[in-house]
Design brief:
By secondary structure, the protein is of the alpha/beta class. The chain folds into 3 domains: about 5-75, OB fold (Dihydrolipoamide Acetyltransferase, E2P); about 90-235, P-loop containing nucleotide triphosphate hydrolases (Rossmann fold, 3-Layer(aba) Sandwich); about 250-305, Probable gtpase engc, domain 3 (Ribonucleotide Reductase Protein R1, domain 1). It is built from 7 helices and 16 strands. The chain has a 5-stranded mixed barrel. Helix 1 crosses helix 7. The N and C termini lie far apart (about 45 Å). Bound molecules: guanosine-5'-diphosphate, magnesium ion (MG) and zinc ion. Zinc ion binds next to helix 6.
């Protein structure tokens, strides 16, 4: 033995992991030795895509060590335990794929996602997909969406994964040499985008694939695809995004950029921007410099975080 190599986990399915060797680029199916666990969080899965690991060659290659993670995102397990599922690790950025139609993505979902990305300090970009399908009215909605989010500093791309249209070239430029998590509700075109960019064929398109039933745990399969040299996209079928983890109501405004910026002018320290007098946020909403839809998302999240709903 003693034949140690390093690599990156590119696929996680149950207790099997596919590791891409750092030196040769070869893909190897590996098992895990013993208990590799995170120190802080109890997790249902010891390893996830994006993890840098050491493994030992043999009849069955075995992962023996996990390098410290630069970051990782988790989703609380569905049950009431404190267990969490690690969705991906060592992510440089996340792209949220949304559609105005077929299926529609709600603004509240977008805002909740962006707040989570802020909480994790992971840069986020919006990708409005399926622009080839939109009539004038829907294209108008897409343009308004683009205005709202670019005004507060998010990059917004408009793409078609299936028709040669929109910002696909710019998309590839923004992905180069990075590990990017693709998120978005089912059916918006995440797998199609990866396939369109990827030199190697195929993720399954149009299926809600990826659920593996293992005893009492249902674990989602995530996969990382190398679309260009050192350029990875992570697809997480069945996971819409990442859940907000323990954001306290008094912290929520930190994760809405424009609300946070305006809050320095509120009369009271610790203003929640709900009903306090002299609230600069509410006056910015009235004056039109903060979007009503964004503020409505903030209020909804505030109400549910007070109920503890985001502490799943
Ligand atoms: N017209 C059109 N259809 C698309 C586009 N992107 C994806 N689709 C279709 O939308 C459906 C769902 O796509 P898929 O990639 O599986 O979505 P996912 O669930 O986000 O991975 C499939 O039938 C795709 O062919 C697009 O840009 N334009
Ligand atoms: Mg898919
Ligand atoms: Zn305020």
């Amino acid at each position: 033995m003693g034949n140690m190599s390093t690599g990156i986990v590119v696929k996680a399915a149950g207790s099997s992991y596919t590791v891409r060797d750092a030196a040769s680029g070869a893909r190897r199916e590996c098992k895990v030795r013993g208990k590799l666990r995170l120190r802080d969080v109890r997790t249902t899965n010891p390893l996830t895509v994006g993890d840098m690991v050491t493994y030992e060659l043999g009849d069955t290659p075995v992962i023996t060590a996990l390098a410290p993670r630069r970051n990782y995102i988790i989703r609380r397990a569905a049950n009431l335990s404190k267990e969490a599922h690690v969705i991906a690790a060592n992510i440089d950025q996340t792209f949220l794929v949304v559609t105005v139609d077929a299926p529609p993505t709600s603004l509240e979902f977008i805002d909740r996602f962006l707040a989570s990305a802020e909480a994790y300090s992971i840069p986020a970009t919006l990708l409005i997909n399926k622009i080839d399908l939109y009539d004038e009215r829907r294209m108008d909605m897409a343009l308004r969406m683009e205005d709202t989010y670019s005004a507060i500093g998010y990059a917004v791309l408009k793409t078609s994964a299936t028709a040669a249209k929109g910002d696909m070239d710019r998309l590839l430029q923004l992905l180069l040499n990075k590990v990017t998590l693709l998120s978005g509700i089912s059916g918006v075109g995440k797998s199609s985008i990866i396939n369109a960019l990827s030199p190697q064929p195929g993720l399954r398109v149009g299926e809600i694939s990826g659920y593996h039933n293992r005893g009492k745990h249902t674990t989602a399969l995530s996969e990382m695809v190398e679309v260009a040299k050192d350029t990875y996209l992570i697809d997480t079928p069945g996971i819409k995004g990442f859940g907000l983890v323990d954001i306290r109501p008094q912290e929520l405004s930190h994760y809405f950029r424009e609300i946070f910026a305006a809050s320095s002018r509120c009369r009271f320290n610790g203003c929640t921007h709900v009903r306090e007098p002299g609230c600069a946020v509410r006056s910015a909403v009235r004056g039109g410099s903060i979007s009503e839809a964004r503020y409505a998302s903030y209020r909804k999240m505030m109400a549910s975080s007070e109920d503890g709903k985001y502490r799943r």
